[in-house]
Amino acid sequence: MYENEDMTILRDNFKLIQKVNGFRFSVDAVILSDFFNPHKDGKVLDIGTGNGIIPILLYAKNKSRDIVGIDIQEENSSLAIRNIELNKLEEYIEIVNYDVKEYPFGNSFDYIVSNPPYMKVDGKKQNDLSSKAIARHEIKLDLYDLVKNAKRLLKPMGSFTLVHRSYRFIKISRVLEESGFSIKRVRFVYFSKDKNSNLVLIEAWKGKKCQLEIEPPLFLEESGY
């Protein structure tokens, strides 16, 4: 590791190198990987893979063996590749440094997951191209482009699973439905029982009519996250 890096131990003793002062994974990635529920083996794409945390967690939990992690930032992609190599998962996980809007492999994935930038861009952030700003704000990828490209890259009857801010749930639902997705599962996440929901987990399907299931709330303090 380099001087500005440290290491986190994940489930099943997998390891993750992170930048000390860079963007670090949070509970969002962990609950997303736990919420993801593949009904069969298939090819998985993680949009905005960052340091590779979600592909590693998906392998650890589901033994998913055909995962691509894509990230527009070269710094992130390079670190993700190192993390995949550190855990000897090169046979199962591929990391690509690419703008998902230009990624050419349409109709190629059975599943897409994403922990995307949550925050809209304001005037102050418009020209902030730091790694943290791009990861947190819709500078390079907004909600419309995320959903549009998830649909483009998914096979027919493929699923798209994401974590996002609860206050944007209505907007996310509308964009998904207008883009031809049908929402199947929703779970609201609370840090504690006396707090409002801050996060929401959503599973939507391309080209499939689903009956909506609102799952029991997830309280992070009680769940050991």
From TrEMBL:
UniProt-listed GO biological process terms: methylation
Annotated TM spans: none
Species: Fusobacterium mortiferum
PANTHER family for the chain: TRNA1(VAL) (ADENINE(37)-N6)-METHYLTRANSFERASE
CDD domains named in the record: AdoMet_MTases
UniProt cross-references to InterPro entries, sorted A to Z: DNA_methylase_N6_adenine_CS, SAM-dependent_MTases_sf, Small_mtfrase_dom, tRNA_Adenine-N(6)_MTase
UniProt KW keywords: Methyltransferase, Transferase
Molecular function via GO: N-methyltransferase activity; nucleic acid binding; S-adenosylmethionine-dependent methyltransferase activity
Occurrences of domain Methyltransferase small (ranges): 32-178
Protein name in UniProt: Methyltransferase domain-containing protein
